[in-house]
Amino acid sequence: MPELSLTFDLLVAALVGMAVGVEREWSGHSAGPDGRFAGARTFALLGTIGGFAGWFVRLGYPALATVIAAGGVLLPIVAYWATMRRPGTTTDGTTEVAAVMVVALGLTAGLGLRTPASAAGAIIVVLLAEKSRLQQALQRIDANEMRAALLFAVLALVILPVLPSGSYGPYEAFRPRQLWTVVLMFSALNFVGYITRRLIGETRGLGVTGLVGGFVSSTAVALGFSRRSRDEPQLALPLALGTVAACTVLIPRLLVVTAVLRPSLAWALLPVLGPVLIAGLVIIGLALWRERDTRPHRRGAHHAVGAVPAKNGNGPNPLGLTSSLQMAVAFQVVLFALAWIEQNAGQTGVIASATVLGLTDMDALTLSMTRFATDPAQVRTAAAAIGVGVLANTSLKATLVLAIGGPRYRLRAATGLAVLAVGSAIGLLIGWPR
Fold this sequence. Notes:
The protein folds into two domains: 2-138, no CATH class; 143-431, no CATH class. The chain is built from 16 helices and no strands. The chain has helices spanning 2-26, 40-59, 62-84, 94-110, 114-129, 131-140, 143-162, 176-200, 206-231, 236-261, 263-290, 321-344, 346-358, 362-372, 379-404, 407-431. The longest helix has 28 residues, at 263-290. The radius of gyration is 29 Å and the shape is elongated. The N and C termini lie far apart (60 Å).
């Protein structure tokens, strides 16, 4: 029924306007010496004006719709001009801009697009209501983080679109756009890890610190915590927990990367990496339950892995762009090597290369396997190669722990890593290609 549909369109247009108007009245912007021109009723009427304009567009009267919408938009513009002429009025056009948006959203609803209009209206109300929290969040952003965000925007919106998407070079293994996507993905992961470390800090526990640090480099966490265990033997248990946590979080990171780049490989990885992930979660859960009162000491906090510098704007790049570029270069080298191995050595050569590469760079191995798994027949082989790499990587960390760590730390961390290695071996038995 057209009449019923129109009724709902106009109702949504009016309700969107009323929601914005209620927020303006609730926050005190429609009263007082700085009071603006509109409250709940006026905003509801502005939304209805936009709704009728959209309806007239659907009826084939665009000129009439333009006049109606223009009248609705002109009202807040004139009101802003009049308000700014009052002596002592604070310069703020948020209410007037919101009124123009209400007319636009009413027009959207009038065109029959009720869901987008409602969703956008809800977002606008949240933005208006959370003004103070948004301002507080902006004040916490330092110059270093702002530069990183702007740089990432340039990398993603300027450089990526102009790169060619084809395949070039030996074995057609060089793909510039895909390679740059790798840089963006790991820069984003580094940025998330940086922000999370800054929000959580070391005061929430070395286990959490290791967990977050594992998103960037679990090997670096194992190395750093092993060294620290010699200086602060009383922190042996939380340092060991942080090491196991960093090695555990590597698994979901690999699953996320493969799910984004090659979903079929991610499904094949579940039985291979599932046992080691479960083993890690069980270890972390038991350790947190047994030592739930353990907290890191303030002394020596500067030794934290991945500690975030003060807000002076002169710290390291939160994007970790240098490491991301190094990752992309390693990824490309591995792609050429694997293409050659696949052509000349077959499955055995791929597994052997995964063992060596897993000792040094799990991310490059995983990314290269997403390319190797382009052929559906090679998906299980690629999953097994990643599993072998995880086992080799865990063995390397266990070696670091035993060689560098303090006595009490060695016992606990090596035991946890041994359990992870057993989980890796079980996963390989389950998912080995046959």
